[in-house]
Amino acid sequence: MTRVVIVDDHSIFRSGLKASLDAAVEVLSEAADVDAAVAAVTEHRPEVVLLDVHLPGGAGGGGAEVIRRCAGLLDSVRFLALSVSDSAEDVVGVIRAGARGYITKGSSADDVNSAIRTVASGDAVFSPRLAGFVLDAFGAAAGEQAVADDELDRLSAREREVMRLIARGYAYKEVATELFISIKTVETHVSAVLRKLQLSSRHELTAWALERKLL
Amino acid sequence: MASGSLQAPHLCLDSRVSQTETSARPPLVRPRRAVIGGVSAGLSEHLGWPVRRVRLLLVVASLLGGAGILFYGWLWALVPLAPGETGDAEETPRRRAPIAAILLVLGAVAAIAAIVQANVEGSASTAVSLSLALTGGAVVWSLALDEHDPDRSPRYRLIIRSAGATVLLATGLLLLASNDWRPEAMTAVVAVGMMVLGLAVAVAPFIVRLWNELMRERSGRIREEQRAEIAAHLHDSVLQTLALIQNRAGASSDVARIARAQERELREWLFAGDGAPGADLVSELSEDAATIEVEYPARIDVVTVGESVPAHPSLVAAAREAMLNAARHGGGEVSVYVEAATSAVDVFVRDRGAGIDLDALPADRLGVRESIIGRMQRAGGTATVQRGAGGVGTEVHLHLDL
Lengths: 215, 402
What we know:
The structure holds two protein chains of two kinds. Chain A is an alpha/beta fold. Chain A contains ten helices and five strands; from the N terminus they run βαβαβαβαβαααααα.
């Protein structure tokens, strides 16, 4: 049983989303703005928060603000960002704030359910588009590559390969088959990329984000 | 004579009655192409008199204490314009006589008379008033009537206005200077008034233009704000609903496809002008994907990485063919990944359908072999068609060195 809180300011979308969740997901609470979301997350301590990127209320920071204000809970509570658009500013903003994954609202019910399971088990959810952003932001397409594994500002060769396959529409399992590695290893790579995306001080990433008015 | 022609307005005011009584008589209207106001022509048409006789009567009546002029003005104000030739009520009346110029010349003559009179006799209020009325009339005529008259060039209007301003200013100054700068009190007041009016005429067009620009800018800003508000509202409500429909209906259902197409159209409208549409590879492929999505039960996700590169026609055509195949034979979710660098471009098209075996393809299926592989080879690139990961579906990989 995965316990979730749904945060979205559109009641129609909330009820539609709730109806599409499968039996293994229990909805503890719903919230429609930043303050209510922070209160609901703090009170219920869900495993996963389905978080709309655009939210009214609070200081106007939307979904990213909710994550920042719940920063102390990030060890036990995971945020899965939902957005109606897949623009770079929406995605990178929430991911850098601490979300563990990102899907568009138009994703099918199956995709949403599997994304919830993945995030709940501690792994990251990367849509093809998010993988594309990451490749772009880390200059991977131009051939930049990390020398050491702990380098934050560039992707390692393996991480780049994983990202490229995800961008090509491969599921984690398919990536594993293609690269002759285990699913667990794929998940480790994806989590490492997510960490880099959140912690990197890469100049281009910042400039890239600034250009799109993200930070 | 004036009393004779005064019967006409009676007919005109009861035009409905007069029409029933004397149906042979055409209605009293002013033609749109006239010498001055179209009153004489209208009257002659209505009464069945030659237009010369009407004009002569009016001129003679005018000499009798100005009755003809008053009568003319009265009819001008009350008689409606004839419908336009094209049936267009908006057609602007054209006036042949350059009334503004004539009034201006008369005003200037009166001004000279006034200056001479002021210097000789001291008081010149009649001539001054006449000059003021005539010159002011010329400017008003130019501003109100000639402005819309297609027969009057902008240059003509500019000359009238500047000449009017000059006459007013110069006359005012010369009147003030009369009698060795000691003009009679009444003349001085009128002279100052003339100069103020002259200045106003000189600067009025600029003020009007500034005002118009200000208003245009303001209404433009209001429109822009309104548009942004509508965009925000639609983004908040309609896009959410369209996303929900897609979420609930499944990727390849008709409903989801319609919702997706609608969402894309709405986005294009909302964010129009955000990105410059050009012959960019990515925008070309996205457009093709959108077109294919509408026709086939598939959802094509285009992910792009790298730089904006120009659309190579062969690459675009091969990619379109690959997407078409994927949508037609694979259906469902189709993933397109474009990686563009300055040196090379890679395009991956992947579906999750039954998959095709290139070797087992019947010879008549030229689609893949010719329009994808052959086309890429002719363009100096490569194309591989193989089974997707885990043996599911097909993946087409196009590569082109730039």
